[in-house]
Amino acid sequence: VQLQASGGGLVQAGGSLRLSCAASGQSFRNGAMGWFRQAPGEERRFAAVISRSGHKYYSDSVKGRFLISRDNAKNTVTLQMNNLKPEDTAVYYCAADQSVILSTLRTPAAYRYWGQGTLVTVSS
């Protein structure tokens, strides 16, 4: 199983970026797919996840600015990030797992499959 993330880069505050993650080797149609992020010196934290039923969950820090979506036919998950802030600067990781339950959707340790990370830098 491989997850390939792309779309990171450098953007000014207030700008937008779109991250994409393509999974191969296993269909995650019946699983959760999401994005976590890790700023320098900090632990990896939940950003957004979409459940197998299509429900979307966001951290308070990104709610209203980020939008997660998935394409089950293509086995992909996308994160549209708008109104970016310098505090959004981090390495963003996509994650997927068919066995994640509702209570652990926001928990990094619940996911077995991870992408390689893509760096997002927001300048002020």
Quick structural gist:
By secondary structure, the protein is mostly beta strands.
Architecture blueprint of SSEs:
Layout: E1 2-6, E2 9-12, E3 17-24, E4 32-38, E5 45-50, E6 56-58, E7 66-71, E8 76-81, E9 90-97, E10 113-114, E11 118-123
Give a quick set of tags describing it.
124 residues; mainly beta; 4-stranded antiparallel sheet; single chain
Walkthrough of the structure:
- The protein has 124 residues and is mostly beta strands.
- The chain is built from no helices and eleven strands.
- The protein has strands at residues 2-6, 9-12, 17-24, 32-38, 45-50, 56-58, 66-71, 76-81, 90-97, 113-114, 118-123.
- Strands 2, 4, 5, 6, 9, 10 and 11 form a seven-stranded mixed β-sheet that branches.
